[in-house]
Design brief:
With about 90 residues, the protein is mainly beta. The relative contact order is 0.26. It has one domain: Folate-binding fold (2-Layer Sandwich). The chain has a 4-stranded antiparallel sheet, with no helix packed on it. A hairpin with a 6-residue loop joins strand 4 and strand 5. The radius of gyration is 15 Å and the shape is elongated. The protein has 1 helix and 6 strands.
Length: about 90
């Protein structure tokens, strides 16, 4: 069992949440040098690191808010959990 320390609801079981992906920067659609390869990489390629990563989680059975969780992918340890800011939320999940 992994406990996620929701800043709104307190520590909760990870079964209450939905993992919505790694956080990575979105290409600028107004930039004329953004290539189809950059969009393909943004949409389909993931780093999948063995170590610390920042992820987006949605608390579906609690506060119904998006969170940014800094989690170690090997040990499952969480060292930071904060509300997602609008400018950091994954595109399509705002």
């Amino acid at each position: 069992m992994m406990l996620i320390p929701c800043p709104h609801c307190g520590p909760r079981d990870s079964g209450e949440f939905v993992w919505t992906g790694e956080l990575h920067p979105r290409p600028d659609p107004d930039d004329t040098v953004t290539t189809p390869a950059a969009w393909r990489a943004y949409l389909y390629e993931r780093d999948n690191p063995a170590g610390w990563t920042s992820e987006s989680w949605y608390h579906r059975f609690g506060c119904r808010r998006y969170l940014v969780v800094e989690r170690h992918t090997v040990t499952g340890e969480i060292r930071r959990c904060e509300p997602a800011r609008r400018d950091r939320a994954p595109e399509g999940r705002r």
